[in-house]
TrEMBL record:
This is Peptide MFS transporter. It is a multi-pass membrane protein. It comes from Novosphingobium clariflavum. The chain crosses the membrane at residues 12-33, 54-72, 84-104, 113-130, 142-162, 183-202, 208-228, 249-266, 272-289, 301-319, 339-363, 375-395, 407-429, 441-460, 480-504. Residues 21-513 form the Major facilitator superfamily (MFS) profile domain. It is found in: Cell membrane. CDD domains: MFS_DtpA_like (cd17346). PROSITE patterns: MFS (PS50850), PTR2_1 (PS01022). Its main location: membrane. Keywords: Cell membrane, Membrane, Peptide transport, Protein transport, Transmembrane, Transmembrane helix, Transport.
Amino acid sequence: MKDIGTWNEGDWVGAIGAVLLFAILAIGGVIASRKSQEVVGHPRGLFVLFYTEMWERFSYYGMRALLILYLTKHWLFDDGKANLIYGAYTSLVYITPVLGGYLADRYLGQRKAVLFGGVLLAFGHVLMAFEGTGGQSDPTINVFWLALAFIIVGSGFLKANISVIVGQLYKLTDERRDGAYSLFYMGINTGAALGTILVGYLGETIGWGYGFGLAGIGMVLGLIIFIIGKPALNGKGEAPGPLSKNREWTLYALGTASVVVLWLLIQFQAIVGTLLLISAVALLGYLLVEAFRMPKEPRERIFAIIFLLAFQPIFWGLFEQAGGSLSLFTDRFVERGGVPTSLFQAVNPIFIVTFAPILAWLWRALGRKQVEPSAPAKFGFGLVLVGLGFVSLVWGDAVAGQGAKVGVFFIFLIYWFHTLGELCLSPVGLSAMNRLAPRHLASFIMGAWFFATAGGNFVAGMIGQATGGEHGAMTREGTVAIYGTIGWWVVGIGVAVILVARLVKRWMHVDTLKDIELEGSSEIGLEAQEAGAHPTLKTN
């Protein structure tokens, strides 16, 4: 244990994170000790889900903050390969919830799906703590691949399904629904921020196994809370129909067996890219076939959906550099003081909590004056902002000059731009998918949203791989050149989207949309993005 007099900035950040975590646990203990069915006007089940999700996000984002550093410093992958692995892993995390959501809706019910997913996630995070000796020749690396596979499949069963249970605690007309999602959203971002700080701090300053071990403990705690808190859910999230033990355990066996498939896929990233490309073509073809079977207005709404989906991979391809190449750039070329590299990934969820209410207020204020930008225009602004983030970092490099490290201010600046871009695109896109999708395609369209996000994560890995150059080792000059090029290109694409937004808005035919609320649709969407999903989505 360090003497407090020798603490640097990173030690203080870690200590503050630990104090906040204990404070949140104390509040949870007070809530758990209450006998009433409601707490601060909401069902006790909401807080069971809040703490379960907080610990799951604590584990996931804490592990994610360390992953690229672990790949390069412990397993000794070159920078390009490490970025590609990171992109393949995160893309698979966003594909599997489509299947997990389908199995929950059709057979298991959300509660059992979340429970099963939590068990797999706990296994995965615990396995991450087995370091071995390091280097790609170490046979322990197969345990690492297995850990990633467990986390991918576990996320598939847990992501989205836990959000659906939140919605099931309330009637569709219950005015508390938005407030419930605001609280749940706070759990997502609180877990993401604290996990990044504490897991990252332990992993970088004490040892990888300690950091990943803490992530595993967090996931186990979340699982225990969910199991003990079952009565507070009041029977919500159960199977939609009779479920025999035979079928239930068959589904669990298939889910466990799929870990082996993912263990193979994550090791061969090119296969993941090929499958994504083939699936994207098939998905686009199916949507177009469905569109041309429809009357004019719903057909054009499908065109608007395709337009918005097409820009998802571009946005997330840049945004997701945060956990990949940007983390390596921060580690090597930024003046960080004594702050561990991984801790900077906590900036995004903290900014989300800070700026989401401000942007929500801004859209409402503009809406009252009839000047609120359309959904396609907001997509354009999101693209401009994510591009400007990289342009600002290029500027920071120029300000520093050769021989000096980039000022840490510019890392905060890129995260600020990217957070605002996320808030322009993520909640707006989710709402648009829910509003525009024909009722018989609602779940499929949400699956397409997940899929496009997955594609963006793989694109992120490819961009990150390019920063490794021909020999796989990142250079400051080469990375800055790539950031500048993609930054300005995406700014230009964003401007083009804004210019054509009026046409795409006409395709949406918002004025003739029927006021139909699809049960569970916004709940499914809440977990579609990273830590900063918007809490107050409505379909009407």
